[in-house]
Amino acid sequence: MTPDHLLSTLHSIVGAANVLTGDACAEYESDWRRRAHGKARCAVRPGCTAEVAEVVRACAQAGVPIVPQGGNTGLVEGSVPDTSGEQIILSLRRMQAVRTIDPANMTITVEAGCVLQTLQEVAHEAGLLFPLSLGAEGSCTIGGNLATNAGGTQVVRYGNARELCLGLEVVLADGQIWEGLQGLRKDNTGYDLRNLFIGSEGTLGIITAATLRLYPQPAAQLTAWAAVPSLQAATALLALSHRHLSAALTGFEVMSQEGLRLVDQHYAHLRVPMWRETPWCVLLEASDSESEAHARAQFEHLLETAMEDGIVTDAIIAENIRQAHDLWHIRESITLAQAAEGPNIKHDVSVPISRIPEFVTQTDAQLQALAPGLRLINFGHLGDGNLHYNVQPPAGADAAAFIAAHEAAIGDVVYRSVHRFGGSISAEHGIGTLKRDQLPLYKPPVALQLMHTIKQALDPQCLLNPGRVLER
């Protein structure tokens, strides 16, 4: 099939208005951080699963690679094309429908292009809760959340995207459609195909719809902000929170002083509490099934005990929803403050919770020895062992030059340290192309062999998101 013939075929499938070329394609060709810039043959925007299947069949016949894309909010350069001009971007953004909501079964079925915030709102209107929550929820899509097995701020209670998904609809590399949307909690009929596609970053199939778990809305939800004297104290507070709150603990975030300093510098109107007097702050969230009074009593008892034990030096409990939102907004603004400060180096890692303080102490020291003056912006989901261990160039330095000179060596130090402490080089962002070459260094050879075997079996032409996760 010639390029012109393929373009004509795509026009006939989705309509000429939904096949974008040239400048019209530009917004799909760069990642959210503007670090990766590719060139696509075109961007195709199907409106339903049948159209996705037809597009995939046409590309398979022509031997043309496909890059699936949702909200394009990823951080590992996994949803934009390479620079060849040969790949096709398949955008799922038009597929936004909420197909069904089943309150009795506590499930909702949505298309892959449904924005996470929209799903949260639909569930809320039905008196239910969809608990996946992350900073990009106003623009990220469910297909992308599942393709990367997104985490977020409530993993400590509800789990990653994988734990929230009961079924999938997936278009395979040859254009076949696997219809697996049953909202079953138990289905012990062979291999778990659903989990195979979740977290595969579009390399095994294209997720077009999903059936997801819903939960009862809590009777009350409270947020607290606590100052802690050390990271060891933060992990002690986490253990204490588990004992006092049990399953009511839904969020536990840790933030370093340097990260909060950047928020205060660039967004002073947010009025960051306590950051000047303490090296770390913790943001806690509890959801209670009884009442706000019960939740507040539990929270107050927890914090009083923590202060008596010397693991909290000061704390506040949000008095209303607005105050709680403001505290969470501070946490979510760390990434934005980093961007406002200038280019930086991001690491999304996980380490066993008990080993995080030692990991940070040792890795901080190694990095300061490697590049004196660099700024370490550590924050993240301590409740599930996930740190965003980020590096900001020294104040006043040429950021681009610093990153060009030191990024590879800094990454090597961080990933070696993560591996030494029994962690993972990717906690919730995925591998994409950014970490693809690092994966063989830290993934066991047998695991890599199995991954290549699965890829070959499901995508023998290597047309689905080639060069992402695995080398071609």
UniProtKB/TrEMBL annotation:
InterPro entries the record matches: FAD-bd_oxidored_4_C (IPR004113), FAD-bd_PCMH (IPR016166), FAD-bd_PCMH-like_sf (IPR036318), FAD-bd_PCMH_sub1 (IPR016167), FAD-bd_PCMH_sub2 (IPR016169), FAD-linked_Oxase-like_C (IPR016164), FAD-oxidored/transferase_4 (IPR051264), Oxid_FAD_bind_N (IPR006094)
Entry keyword Chloroplast: no
Keywords: FAD, Flavoprotein
Pfam families with a match to the protein in the record: FAD-oxidase_C (PF02913), FAD_binding_4 (PF01565)
Domain FAD-binding PCMH-type: 36-217
Family, similarity comment: Belongs to the FAD-binding oxidoreductase/transferase type 4 family.
Protein name, entry field: FAD-binding oxidoreductase
Organism: Ralstonia soli
Organism taxonomic ancestry: Bacteria, Pseudomonadati, Pseudomonadota, Betaproteobacteria, Burkholderiales
